[in-house]
Amino acid sequence: MEMIVDFPGGARVDAHFGPYTIKTDQPPMGGGEGSAPTPFATFLGSLATCAGIYILGFCRQRGLDTTGIRLVQRLKSNPMTGLVSDVEMEIQVPPTFPEKYYNALVRSAEQCAVKKHMETPPKFHVHTEVVTE
Length: 133
Prior knowledge:
By secondary structure, the protein is α+β, with helices and mostly antiparallel strands. The chain has two domains: 1-36; 38-119, GMP Synthetase, Chain A, domain 3, CATH 3.30.300.20. The chain is built from three helices and five strands, in the order βββαββαα. A three-stranded antiparallel sheet has the order 1-2-3, with no helix packed on it. The protein has a two-stranded antiparallel sheet with strand order 4-5. It is elongated and about 60 Å long. It starts with a strand and ends in a 14-residue tail after the last helix. The relative contact order is 0.12.
């Protein structure tokens, strides 16, 4: 997959791939307009929504109603580095959700591809290329 990133103005940075565009911005205190999530917030959102799609798939395969199910993601940061040190995902279910599926629901969320990539991160290769048009 190839993504093309461009800089449409201000502190906005957009990623384009296929028919999609992910728009990002910085908050006003970071020099932006706050018109879109920051790149890091988008990354964290991808972690939560990835787990969510696995939860949704689990429920759909079993014909389970997803009404009232929510995933709440909480972060703890290392005060020395400012980096995220812990990610908690709480799957909230309504009282009517069958208890026999609680553990399986957790196991399905743990299959998230974004989480798995964080657990075994790829190597990064960044370079500059001169392009003439």
